[in-house]
Amino acid sequence: MKICFNGTWEETPTEISVAEFLKQRNLNAGEIIAEVNEAILGGDEFGITLKDQDHLNVFRVVAGG
Amino acid sequence: MEVNPYLSSAERAILENAKIGIAGAGGLGSNCAMHLVRSGVRHLLIADFDRVAASNLNRQFFFADQIGQKKVEALGVNLRRIVPDLELELFDQKICDNNAVELFKSCDIIVEAFDSANAKQMLIKSLLKANKKIVGASGLGGWGRSEAIRLRQFGGGKLYIIGDCASEVGNGEFHPFSPRVGVAAAMEANTVIALLLGVQA
Fold first, then answer.
1. What is the pLDDT of residues A4-17, one digit of tens each?
2. Which among B125, B155, B166 is the nearest to A35, CB-wise?
3. The model's pTM
4. Domain containing A16: what range?
5. What is the ipTM of this complex?
6. Which of B72, B36, B33 is nearest to B52 (CA)?
7. How many angstroms separate the CA of residue B160 from the nearest CA in chain A?
8. Are B186 and B163 in contact (CB under 8 A)?
9. Residue B172: φ, ψ to 5°
10. Hey, is the C-beta of B152 within 8 angstroms of any chain A C-beta?
């Protein structure tokens, strides 16, 4: 299964949730805003399963202003 | 008063008729507001509960004789020194998930200009649920690495984020300095202007 993650195509061996995908990359879902196929996920939607050819984009929200 | 003589009449009308929300009047918000006013935006809704502190003067659009004043009031004075007849709605209050949508519901675009990561997340999530367009910032601490500050678009054009999404202020490694905060603030204003005028953000 191929997922386009922040503009780069990556192979994942099995179906995987957004939360698991982020965890594998040491990204804390609590610090992240994520979108799948241009739909921004609510805080309770990180458990959805990614599908082949999905586009997942995320960014970390960090302090500073 | 026409502060920006380089606009066409159509462009001027668009900017003058827009209402922009500024959530936070610190390093991002005060400087972004200044850029928007100099560009021709006339109507701003600005909310912040804080007062000007000496430590703010390294990057925020305030002056030494304003220390101790409410930020929204001091910023209003400073912006009106550029354009005296601005339409400003100033709210000296903390923004939370209970009041964010109601506060900014009349705004065409809202600039996220908080310093706390939790507050940034709260505002973005609250306003996205209300289908508002947001321009925010994440990752602007320290100095150098100018090329790392970039614009990214999310949600099919509902959310624009400026910064490197990594340089976190307050973790001991990075502190807020005027140039990098100012770059992000100017890019927030530039993105708002581009969205209003219908050109690529």
1. 999 999 999 889 99
2. B155
3. 0.96
4. 2-60
5. 0.91
6. B72
7. 11
8. no
9. 95, -25
10. yes
